[in-house]
Amino acid sequence: MASTNPQFSSGADKSAMAEEVSALLDAEWKLSDDRIGIEKTYYFKTYTKVLVCYLYSEACTSKNHHSEMLLKSGSVHIHWTTHNPHGLSEKDTFMAKYCDEQARTIGTVEKDGQKKCRPTATKG
Prior knowledge:
about 35% helix; five-stranded antiparallel β-sheet; EC 4.2.1.96; about 20% strand; Gyrase A, domain 2; Pterin_deHydtase; 4a-hydroxytetrahydrobiopterin dehydratase; 4 helices
């Protein structure tokens, strides 16, 4: 954990947060380049499963904490950080774990397991 040096929100329990972030890094989360956030990309077999990720928004609203989320045809990239107070907070680690739970429920695949779009057949 010492080599990554995440920047925690003021008032955060730094030792507890360091353990939480370390566990998330072991679960394929990455520390953002600015070290104030964590991010992960999930891959799904179909676009429909990507859209199911909107389930995340319900928990975000209940926690009054919202991520940056980029939806693509076979993946969802999620970035968590706390804006006030600035840095990584317990909200971020809680929501990252929630995202992992939801992704397991939806069913992720390896990056190369995504269903690729194919051209539609034309009548001719």
